[in-house]
């Protein structure tokens, strides 16, 4: 399978290799990320929520923080349903193994496009083509920790810390352009709990942060929940980056 990397982490890790010295890599940090990745890859299905916040620079007031909440249903290898509420509007995305449907509740409009044969390939293709984000998707890619190491980033294990009611392994890294942190649950599943990326080379160093919660492991997800039926009066439009941006 080819390497797949969504822009949020791709931007964070795709920096120059010219550090002047070899990166420092903590083997325990690598082990924790590998353990989390392996457990996720072995799932048959899952449900989780992603509370996302991100900074956008405004010339008049400086950095502005936006947020949205996604609820994601994934059934492997080829089913996905995402419901999103927040500053990006109320919208849903459904993928049934053949087609992907995008629906804007605000405008009562929808778009459809053919999609690749698997969830991971579909998320990668749709993100690159139309700019649609799938929070938490990076943790599911088989080459997750390998891709981090291949960029020459420093990576270290900082110990146990607490996020909400969960004890977490705290992992941090840095390269020329970004710093990044992961919090992985200290339990038998090693599920992702939080991620934070700081864009060091951008104006006022904006951040992207996501908290992953309400995990349900291997729930029963019937195939019909991934099928889209247009609501009464819905307008069909062509899926494009412009439509995704406007239909919020």
Topology readout:
Layout (H helix, E strand, L loop, with lengths): L6 H7 L13 H15 L3 E14 L3 E14 L3 E8 L4 E5 L3 E6 L4 E6 L4 H12 L13 H7 L3 E10 L2 E9 L3 E8 L6 E8 L7 E11 L17 E2 L4 H6 L2
Parallel strand pairs: 6-12
Antiparallel strand pairs: 1-2, 1-11, 2-3, 3-4, 4-5, 5-6, 7-8, 8-9, 9-10, 10-11
Describe it.
With 248 residues, the protein is an alpha+beta fold. The protein has 5 helices and 12 strands. It has a 12-stranded mixed sheet with strand order 7-8-9-10-11-1-2-3-4-5-6-12, covered by helices on one side. The radius of gyration is 18 Å and the shape is globular. The two termini are 33 Å apart. The model is unreliable at 1-20 (pLDDT under 50).
Question: What's this model, at a glance?
Answer:
This protein is an alpha+beta fold and 248 residues long. Helices cover 19% and strands 41% of the residues.
């Amino acid at each position: 399978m080819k390497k797949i990397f969504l822009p949020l982490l791709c931007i964070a890790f795709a920096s120059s290799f010219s550090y002047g010295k070899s990166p420092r890599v903590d083997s325990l940090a690598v082990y924790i990320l590998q353990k989390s990745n392996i457990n996720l890859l072995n799932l048959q299905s899952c449900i989780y929520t992603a509370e996302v916040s991100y900074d956008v620079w405004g010339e008049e007031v400086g950095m502005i923080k936006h947020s949205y909440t996604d609820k994601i249903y994934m059934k492997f290898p080829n089913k996905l349903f995402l419901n999103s509420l927040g500053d990006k509007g109320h919208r849903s995305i459904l993928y049934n193994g053949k087609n992907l449907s995008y629906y804007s509740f605000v405008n009562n409009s929808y778009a459809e496009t053919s999609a690749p044969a698997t969830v991971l390939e579909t998320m990668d293709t749709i993100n690159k083509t139309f700019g649609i984000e799938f929070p938490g998707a990076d943790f599911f890619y088989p080459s997750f920790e390998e891709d981090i190491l291949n960029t020459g980033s420093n990576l270290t294990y900082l110990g146990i810390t607490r996020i909400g009611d969960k004890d977490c392994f705290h992992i941090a890294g840095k390269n020329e352009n970004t710093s990044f942190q992961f919090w992985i649950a200290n339990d038998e599943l090693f599920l992702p709990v939080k991620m934070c990326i700081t864009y060091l080379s951008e104006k006022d160093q904006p951040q992207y942060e996501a908290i992953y919660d309400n995990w349900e492991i291997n729930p029963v997800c019937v195939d019909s929940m991934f099928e889209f039926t247009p609501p009464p009066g819905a307008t069909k439009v062509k899926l494009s980056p412009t439509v995704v941006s406007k239909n919020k």
